[in-house]
Sequence to fold (627 residues):
Amino acid sequence: MMDLDTVKERAGPREFSPADDLPREYREAATRMIEFHANSEIMGAYLERPFIRQSPSIDRKLAFSAKVQDEIGHGQLLYRAAESLGVKTREEMLDDLANGDGKFLNCFHYPLKSWVEVPMISFFVDGAAMRRQATLRRTSWEPYAHAMDKVCFEEGFHVKHGEDILKELMTGSRKEQQLTQGAFEEWWPRIIQFFGPTDDKSTHHDFAASVGLKQQSNDDLRNAFLDQYIPKARKYGLKIPDEPRIRERDDGTYAVEEDDLDWDEFFTIAKNEYEPGLGQINGRKQAQEAVDWVCETIEADAATARGHEPQAAD
Amino acid sequence: MATPDFSEPEELTARERRALESLIKRLADDEFVLAERYTEWQVRAPTLESDLALANNAQDELGHARLWYDVLGDLGYTERELVYERDPAEFRHSTLVELPFEDGDWADAVLRSYLYDVAEELRLEALEDSSSPTIANRVAKIQQEEGYHREHAQNWVERLAEGESNGGEGHKRLQAALDRLFPHALTLFESCAPPRGANDANDASGDKPRAAGSDVEADIVDLGLRTATLEELGEEWLAIVVPYLESLGLDVPESGQTGDGEFEFEVTQEMLPDERGRDGTHTDAWADLYDDFTHTYRELGRSEPTKIMEIPE
Fold:
């Protein structure tokens, strides 16, 4: 088995594949990271699904249904990349997610109540995700990097669609503009927290970075996001809230005042203990349990018929 | 009756327009409402793979609805009038497609899809040589996708029906779904009440009662818009679905089958549900569904649904 020092030495983009005999520490860290990512795709889709129906036109509905479908496809791809580390099966990960043990993005713990909130996810949060995912195309676990190629490609369309929804709302009636501004103020701090705590508060950062899983620090990603999205928000007529305070540096880039953000709430969410998020976890759990009978039926049959491990049905 | 030139919508008589409108609405409304129901399975299907498959079907059906509604665009209708601001009682879809799914009732989803997709294949065949070139042109594209839907549905129906393990749960649930859905599936072949307004275009007083649905349906066939009657389609449908379902050990409710194994489509009032969709009567579930899909449009006070894609010709 490769020792940890060798792993750290060799850690480069797409360096490791299932052919490598990697130490447990690496495989567990990679599993945790990819599982988190996969879970986030599923919970994001869960959150957005009602807006397929509530889309205000057939074209939007089509695009939104396709988007939700893409997220499920990303989840499928990512679970496969995680499974390839040999630590957990997809079923275990999905069960953990249902039981409240699986972790996922802070933004998907908040309820999504109205169409005006949709671009907060599909433009800002997806835009933030794009930034992070782009760097992960150089992650050291090859199957993860490979999954990112497809994910990044599709995510580009989602962000464009999200931007179009935002633009439409911000050029609509005054009521639409006001409601959208209100949603933005509510979501803005959460969006900034998407990138997680500052590097010195982040628990897993050092190891993940040292073995090439993570390619850029939380702080760098967040600042790059602010540099890109503050001008975009302003372009569509959104007013950046006074809090959290954001400093504009001399070179025109931005930095956020970390202490203005609610980190207690963030860490409550990270433990899956935030009330609305729990409701969403349990809602998805109920949906999963309601169809358990199907999987039990076909898996038992497949096992009897072939006398070996059941396969997933399509 | 002389065959009119349906490629010149401005030249059509009120009666011809009424026939075209009535035919398209039943097609488009079925696809639109079924798609709405299918999307309920997104992020809720038994596996990630079946989730993706059903999402595909939903988008296909939505795409078809858009193609059909667009035909009515030639008659001057907009999406606002056809969908987002249409009186819910003026929708003409069969009640089969509006019924809600019980949580986790995958047997309902795949059986409903099977019952619908067989009917859809038959009616598309009967539109291949439509006297309306706009309709005939759209059929081929739609047929391609529908074939796949039926295969997918059948695959699942068989898997559930033949599953012996888990106490025959799949079979039990399919039977329950069949008992519930079959009467509603029969409404697929009911004639439509003509749309309000389209009817009395020739009658300024507006006092005349609406033309009977059966008259408009007869016009649809006489004008060559569809080359088979609803009875013929219904018989073909029965001849396919009844033997198939029986071969899976399912009991088909009263279906109009005669003793010698031939199918006659003689649907009696007792075989049909109280609400039939085609005549403008709908279940309570439809009102809820309509409220939900028009929610944002109303909340934001929109007056025009957004177009973001061009319809391919």
